[in-house]
Amino acid sequence: MNSLIPNPALDEYVRRVESALDRFLPGAEEEPALLHRAMRYACLNGGKRVRAMLVYAAGAALDADPEVLDIPAAAVEMVHAYSLVHDDLPAMDNDDLRRGRPTCHIAFDEATAILSGDALQTRAFEILAGQGAIPDDRRVRMMSLVAGAIGSKGMVGGQMLDMAGEHRSLGLNDLRKIHRAKTGALITAAVMLGGLGSLSSDAPLLAAYECFGREIGTAFQIVDDVLDETSDTQTLGKRAGSDREAGKSTYPAAIGLDDSRRLARQHYKSALEALEAVPGDTGLLVDIARLVVDRSS
Question: Domain 8-294, what architecture?
Answer without folding.
Answer: Orthogonal Bundle (1.10)
